[in-house]
Amino acid sequence: MNTSAEIQQAAPGAAPLLELKGISKRFTGVRALDHVDLDVRAGELHVLFGENGAGKSTLINVISGTFPPDEGSFRFDGEEIRHLSPQRARAIGISPVFQEFSLVPSLTVEENLFLGREISAGGVLRAGAMRKKARALIDELGFDLDPGRRVDDLSRAHQQMAEIAKALLGKVRLLILDEPTASLTERETGRLFELIAKLKAQGVGLIYVSHRMREIRALADRVTVLRDGRHIRTLDAARVTDGELVELMTGRRIDVLFPAIPHAPAEVAVDVEGLTLADGSVKDVNFHARAGEITGIAGLVGCGKSELVRAIYGLEPVVAGTVRINGTPYDAPAPRASLKRGVAYFPANRVAEGLALSRPIRENASMTALDLPAVARFGLLRQGSERSLVGAAMERLKLRPPNIERPAGALSGGNRQKVMLGRALTRDLSVFLFDEPSVGIDVGAKLEVYEFMKQLVEAGAAVIVVSSELPEVLALSNRLYVMHHGRIAAELAGPEKTEQNVLASFFKEHLATEAA
Amino acid sequence: MNAHASSTNAASLAARPGITASGRSLLGRIGFLPALLILVVVGMSAVDPQFYGPINILNILRNASFLTIVACGQALVIIAGGFDLSVGAVVALASVVTAKTMGMLAAAFPGNDALVIAGGVAAGLGSGAAVGLVNGLCVARLKVSGFVVTLGTMSATAGVALMITSGIPVYGMPQSFVREFGRAQFFGLPTAIYVALIVLLVMVFVQRRTLFGRYVYAIGGNADAAIVSGVGIRRHLVGTYVLSGVLAALAGILLTAQVGSGQASFGGDRMMLQSIAAAVIGGVSLRGGVGRVEIVAVSALFLTILGNALNLLHIDSRLQPVFLGVIMVAAVALDELGRRRKARV
Amino acid sequence: ETKWFPMKIYDSSSGTPTPAEYTPLAKAEKPYNICVLFPHMKDSFWVAVAYGIATQAATSNVNMNLYEAGGYENLPKQLSQFDDCMAAKADAIIVGAISGAGLMKKFEEAKAKGIPVVGVTNPLPPNALPAANYVDFVAMGEVTGEGLLAQSKPDEELNIVTFPGPAGSGWAESFNEGFKKAVAKNPKAKILGEKFGDSGVAVQLQLIQDALQAYPSMNVIWGSAPTAEAAIGAVAEAGRTDIKVISSYENQAMLDALNRGDILAFATQYPVGEGAIAIDQAIRLIEKKPVTALVQPVAAVIDKTTVPKLQMDLVLAPASWSPVYSVKAK
Amino acid sequence: MSDVSPSLPSPADRRSALSALLWQAALPIALIMLLLGFAAVDSAVLTPGNLVNIAQQASYLALFAMAQTVVILTRGFDLALGPTVSMVSVGAALAMAAGVAGGQEPGTVLLMGLAAGFALGAACGVFNGVVVAYLGVSPFVATLGSYNIAIGVATTISAGRPVQGVPDLFSQLLYGGSLFGVPAAIVIAVLVGIGLHLLLTRTVYGRSLYVIGTNPRAAAVAGLPVKRLLVATYMLCSSLAALGALMMTARTGSGEPNLGGSLSLQAIAAAVVGGTSLAGGRGGVGTAVVGALFVTILSNGMNLARIDGYVQMVVLGAIVIAGVVLDRLRLERR
Ligand SMILES: Nc1ncnc2c1ncn2[C@@H]1O[C@H](COP(=O)(O)OP(=O)(O)OP(=O)(O)O)[C@@H](O)[C@H]1O
Ligand SMILES: Nc1ncnc2c1ncn2[C@@H]1O[C@H](COP(=O)(O)OP(=O)(O)OP(=O)(O)O)[C@@H](O)[C@H]1O
Ligand SMILES: [Mg+2]
Ligand SMILES: [Mg+2]
């Protein structure tokens, strides 16, 4: 590998803001970081790029003082720093936005913003001062966020906003963003990018982690590629192609980011009429999905798109409307009944709703198939048969490492998603509901997930994809619904299915209300 | 873009008129408990006029005071994600230590009651703090679950209390401690009620207005988040257990003053279970991060009144636990169902 | 060494109590290992029994080890301790039974193994053991009832609430039954209510406070020693000096309270003597010497008039004595 | 990276593998050391008679610890276990006494006792399970409620007195009897332990239990009937408690209204000391048995070593904490 983008040593004189040399970090049995070097300059956005489990988050944790490194030197603003604690890091202006949020769900947004940095006098909180400051910050950021709400009442997108706001409270010299857009939609992403530009202009250094090529293209000044905990190369973003980056990251060539999917729409598999949910997040929705095609659902944060598919599967209480699966009415949906009817759901939050992390992969993959004779007879498990069933599924999905007896918690994000997908292969299913199928997984894994969807469609299944990542739904779906405020705002197909049109329907209603 | 942002802001807030938020603020914070309490009070007053007699009310308030004091500390520990099974044993230990110390000081400094009382109270509170410290350090340093640590210290503490006394009540406290502290009344109310009120007010203040209170919520809500946000969680964890120990000791001292002797039979499993019950029925989540001491106090009052009511209604004392159990479960179940329904509307 | 013997007892071996005197053997032939099981050691009553046992063990020159189960709720623990005593090859076992009925199987096992067992203080089913000494709790309750009646004027209305102790303990129920039986002889005496509850002062205090409200006409409180102790304060606080307090058993607090005039009377079964006799019975069984199969101490109600004549060291352990759990033979 | 290809084991690796193995067996090793330590103090500890004695005592506690373990696996616990034991004991004894009084055949009387005992146990379990699963009440409050109810029922139906009249056949079967010289209690506990182990590891039910305990939301999303399984689990717990209660009733020969006393916490302590996690999803028959043996050996040893009662309480407290610290270290080594 020898690209023209190879970076020369940083110009002498301009000492980097952050300079790491030979950082190593070992967890029991895992070398998460192996002599990694990294430097970040003031006013620069430095992208960390690597597969799931490459060590990006670990590096960020070291930089923000959460883990002490086993070895290596750490310089910030030219000064050697030892024994960095989270408090110290924040004090010197290192502000991380973590991938696993550092929010306390039972506290309000405001309480979370100030956590660890409360304004207080002699141990007594000064609520008024904090409220004012929180309001001002949120307004300045332009986030649609109510500082008085409890974090566990918020959608993941709003939690992400709260996490970003938390990082920007107080003086910031180095902002670290670990996959900040993983659950943001276009509009919030736009706001965030504006903000990033502003911070760069103010001379703030940024470290940015993302699996989305588009963002790297749009934002990066330099890119550092990590693989298996090792520093592979640091490149100038302007002089490197996507293909080169992906190849550096994975060690193999990946040509396309989205596979071409041959849609062959057949009979209607899912038919929803006048669906309204108890919490009002979905109102009077009509919608259908056909076998042999991918039906996409896009929409802004909180528009109810997740709730729609969750209701079909039986996770949200329905108050009105009918659902038909393959033509037969389906009353009172519940997960077990849905699976029996051939409907599967893949949740967006794989840790909270998908996997039992401390249990073996085998058990996680066969969790939805425990009623099948291949796995159990008369309530007794058939472990040999189960093992071969799951083993075959995981082989097909190219699980790495292929050992199905390891706990699911030991897997990287992409491989966790594969375990979830494996469930689809353990039983006969005809309808697949994907909620944010590629959140947090690397480019290579994404492609494998898309390939998997392609195989499903080819086999004649109905696939419904809910996604906040617009390029993804646009590229995958044959027909695309756009939701807005719990209702279907548009149905796009064929040549109408463009980014402009989707964005237009996102904002159509605002324009209407503004005009009124 | 800015215009868009602000209009979306207004639009989305209008479209979702804070469904869960309002459910939380009203029911989540207060719950059905006060309503249930009023129901019991009104019902009992209608059935039996003895119930609202001044003496009965004083008895109820005083007995609720002991429970409230212990339950406040327990609630704090539970909010921080822990569990304190040792409170009952601490009540007994503090009682015994206080009485023994006073007895010894009274022998050494006869007549100097102020010194004797101060010394005894300090020793009692100190013994509670010591047990709390052991609990806290084990939980925070050895990272063992609070349930197991305090199960261990419960046994050990009870053992020490019994070793000190051999089970025989400890006498020899100055009469003024019993007369002017234990059985005294100010403006018609016994000392214990004032102490409980002060504890409650301080705890409400601590929970809402202090860094410590905030950190306790944060640690219980998500300890990892608290750590990465720069909250030193060990000290605060230790703090909750020490506070719980001290408050349990305080209740033990008040009981000692009221009864007039130090007893290793105070507290026990009963006080421990009751304090946890008061906290949990008062809306403190055993998963941590949630709960308000004022509601816990209401719940302590509820439990005390329930016991009193069953006695006034002349219910067979063997059957009383059956009523108590059913009402306890029903109260919490109603609360839970009500919350679920409200959150849906 | 002690001035306890000869001690006045009833010999109830034949079924009917006959007055007798008990005198122990001077010394055991060998330093036997005697295992002692107590329900608990949490009050001065059981400490008094332990005092008698330890003192007599030293006098008779035998080894003694005492295990307590931690409370009346721990029958399984006592069963295990009994097993441990048998496993440790004790020469004899003395049991203060948590539940006489509940230990019957153990008694059979011990008999099969040839280990003599002596029952002390707590009643057992008839002929459960080769030797035992205890007062019948029902009889003891009756004694207190009769004591109350004797102390009250003939036409005095007695409105009684009983606080027997923990429900399900067995002993509380038996005391209560005997008391009610005795009191029933007087038509002027009425039992208003029976309030079972844990026998700690704190719990009893709450029960009494509630009873003062629930039964405004109550003028007699009858209960366990912690009940009486709690009652003193509660009654004084409520200004109800007319209420009489009687305790169904003895402890240091009861003695002090009686001397101060805070309670009317308490009952005693001379627990120190019981403990001492149990050791002697065990030695006699080991040595296969004649033994009184059922000794019953002469239970009495102690009031202001009888207290000066009371042989104190048969009722309570001296204040200076701290419990010992084992005695080694010389 | 955790997923590196396997390399040849170096001597250092082998040594660390050995130490890892030792750590895995930390508690059983501690147990054996404990036993040897006590044997050094008193030779009676290691006699066959005492070992059978320990095993027999541990059988009961192990049954109750197993009962707690199944609910702890689902992130719950059963405070009502002790009172359930009391209620079952009294109920079964009353049923048998009635049978004897009614002149029934001994076999019929026995069946009446077993039926009454298990019915009461199952009723408790259904109550706990329904309140926890369907009414959404926390296991603590739910089982504290049934704790009170069971105490009330036990003392009321027995009038607070031991219930006599348990037929000899019953005691013979569940206590006095033996199989190849092994006392009945041990035989039953071993059989139940094997059965429960198979249930937990080889059936759909057991598998579901671990999933529910590890991640209840994921279990619901995967279509497991979480509520029904919870009810079944509380029923299983109470039924095991009922079995233990019947065995203890056979041991005492009478129905005891206070039999359960402080068993609830003892059983939880035994389960947790053995390595069952209160956070759910971790533990099994093995952890329950090891914990029960640990507590039993400790108290037997201290009794034989003539340690005072109150000192025993202090030692027990310290050992409970030490046991769990050991378990945590063990998990960290993995
Ligand atoms: N606390 C921990 N304990 C043990 N192993 C850990 C821990 N945190 C991370 N690891 C391991 O370290 C390696 C690097 O993980 P890291 O989270 O840094 O990857 P990442 O590059 O951020 O991946 P992703 O793109 O999925 O976020 C992985 O193998 C992971 O399993
Ligand atoms: N302006 C807002 N401020 C705070 N919370 C909001 C706001 N708008 C919506 N929410 C919350 O977001 C939640 C619904 O969002 P959710 O993300 O689940 O919907 P969604 O349609 O699935 O969106 P997505 O799939 O993009 O995440 C609701 O609980 C709602 O209360
Ligand atoms: Mg990461
Ligand atoms: Mg969503």
Automatic annotation (TrEMBL), chain A:
The question of whether Glycosyltransferase is a record keyword is answered with no
- Which gene underlies this protein? rbsA2
**Under which name does UniProt file this protein?**
Sugar ABC transporter ATP-binding protein
Instruction: Output the SMART domains linked to this UniProt entry.
Output: AAA
Q: Principal localization?
A: membrane
Keywords for the protein's UniProt record, in alphabetical order: ATP-binding, Cell membrane, Membrane, Nucleotide-binding, Repeat, Sugar transport, Translocase, Transport
Compartments annotated for it: namely: Cell membrane
Which InterPro entries is this protein grouped with?
A: AAA+_ATPase, ABC_carbohydrate_import_ATPase, ABC_transporter-like_ATP-bd, ABC_transporter-like_CS, P-loop_NTPase
The ABC transporter domain sits at 18-253, 267-510
**What GO cellular component is one of the record's annotations?**
plasma membrane
TrEMBL record, chain B:
Xref: Pfam families: BPD_transp_2
Subcellular compartments: Cell membrane
Indicate yes or no for the key word Transmembrane helix. yes
Would the keyword Transmembrane helix be found if you checked this record's keyword annotation? Answer: yes
| Sequence intervals crossing the membrane | 26-44, 64-83, 90-109, 115-140, 147-172, 184-206, 238-259, 271-288, 295-313, 319-337
Matching entries from InterPro entries are given as: ABC_transp_permease
Entry GO MF terms: transmembrane transporter activity
Q: Cellular component per GO?
A: plasma membrane
Lineage: superkingdom: Bacteria
Q: Which UniProt keywords apply?
A: Cell membrane, Membrane, Transmembrane, Transmembrane helix
Membrane topology annotation: Multi-pass membrane protein
In Swiss-Prot or TrEMBL terms, this protein is called ABC transporter permease
Automatic annotation (TrEMBL), chain D:
| CDD domains on file | TM_PBP1_transp_AraH_like (cd06579)
Q: Which PANTHER family match?
A: ABC TRANSPORTER PERMEASE PROTEIN YPHD-RELATED, ABC TRANSPORTER PERMEASE PROTEIN YPHD-RELATED-RELATED
Annotated InterPro entries: ABC_transp_permease
- Membrane-spanning intervals of the chain: 20-46, 58-77, 83-102, 109-137, 173-200, 229-247, 259-278, 285-304, 310-329
Q: What's an example of a GO molecular-function annotation for this chain?
A: transmembrane transporter activity
Q: Which keywords does this Swiss-Prot/TrEMBL entry list? A: Cell inner membrane, Cell membrane, Membrane, Transmembrane, Transmembrane helix, Transport
Tell me the superkingdom of the source: Bacteria
Which cellular compartments is it found in?
Cell membrane
One Gene Ontology term, aspect cellular component: plasma membrane
| Keyword presence, Membrane | yes
| Protein name, UniProt field | ABC transporter permease
Keyword Iron (UniProt): no
Topological type in the membrane: Multi-pass membrane protein
